[in-house]
Write a structure and sequence with these properties.
By secondary structure, the chain is an all-alpha fold. The protein contains 13 helices and no strands.
Length: 233
Amino acid sequence: MDQSVYDGPDLPEEITGKELDRSVLDQLAGLPEKLAARVARHLAAAGALVDEDPETAYRHALAARARAARVAVVREAVGETAYAAGHFAEALAELKAAKRMNAATDYLPVMADCERALGRPERALALAANPSVEKLSQSLRIEMTIVEAGARLDLGETAGALRTLERAPLRSVTREDWLVRLRYAYAHTLAAAGRPDEALEWFHRTVGIDGNEITDAADRISELEAAGAGADD
């Protein structure tokens, strides 16, 4: 093994490993104490960096895997950081490994999106049809709905993509991120279907609840308005 992978990036002194959830620390409890402490620090660093520097987070997760490859939560961390860093084949392999270890199904939406990113929308749709999806939390079910719609778009099934999204709670009154992403996906699909006025309406509905600006809906509104969507005949 490349020593640089084993060593991983430098660990910030303020990262102790105690930042991790108790459930994660419990999975590391079977390791020798010093090894568990090192793995925990790399996992905590990966979690802290994944949004701002996913590549470095991925390297921290690889360092954890080099020391504890048989721990499911470690393989999960590698999968999640690889996904964030755009290493989709690696992410899919690691999440499959984690799923074999702990039989968890929460990874299914990300696995399906990896299949899409790898140019295999049919496999994404197969994962979306897995009966276990119905047992996921609402936010994860919505994520799978968005991935399914995207896969149908990839296959040129625009009408099917719209039907998939229209079965979801687009008019919910929540402001959770899952609804922001759902409305954005619907607006994007309407635009792809050649229905710019409706797309503009739903991009506006997205902006109305996107206080954290997790989408570029405002930019999409500007583009559509510049192209004449919503203009009077």
